[in-house]
Design a protein that fits this description.
- With 233 residues, the protein is α/β, with parallel strands linked by helices.
- Helices cover 44% and strands 15% of the residues.
- It has one domain: Glycerol-3-phosphate (1)-acyltransferase.
- The protein has 7 helices and 7 strands, in the order ααββαβαβαβαββα.
- It has a 7-stranded mixed β-sheet, with helices on both faces.
Length: 233
Amino acid sequence: MVKSILFYFFLYIWTIFLGIIFIPFLFLQKEKLYKPAYMWIKGIFFLLKIICNITYRVSGNKNIPDEEAFIIASKHQSAFETLLLFSMFQKAIFIHKYELFFIPIFGLYLKKISMVAINRLGKSSALKKMLDDSKKKISEGHSLIIFPEGTRKIPGAKPDYKPGVAGIYKELHCDVLPVALNSGLYWPKNSFTIKPGEIIIEFLPVIKKGLNKKDFIEKLEKTIEDKTSSLIF
């Protein structure tokens, strides 16, 4: 518990410090913001390692497509994969909930980088806007990172893959890179305590474009869940 308190204390200080000193970057081209973002993430990984004894290992790099833009569909158990995936893929863009824009300082940077937001209260109009924004990002060479279940899940919890990911897959006509992980064992949802250990992030074989929605979401869920189960048990 003491180590977790120390981590969150220094995380708060680090975030405020960088958020303030890099404010001038908000007035530059959005591409200039990636470097400060990567620096912030490296600092968090450093704090996790020296304070909480958390390390990480990435495998399956051979499965990453050669294409410039594709969809990355990841299991979501922790904040860790959000940070790692963003730092690994150049020009990566998240599809995230609209409410994140209202987080002080952090929300300003999200808006500047032009992440794709979806207002879950907006229903069909919000979905259409999200799809239009996603198509534009793909056409500009950005890869899209999406969490098919929409929120973090506790390791071993029943999967809940949303149909929206199948709609995005069909509309964008892109290959999908599935991602399995075990981050929830060490930096869990709804828990203040961070546990020491090795987080594993594994890139799985690509699901090619062209499947119908039903076949795609069944294949995506099976691919991610089978591997994730082997990582957490």
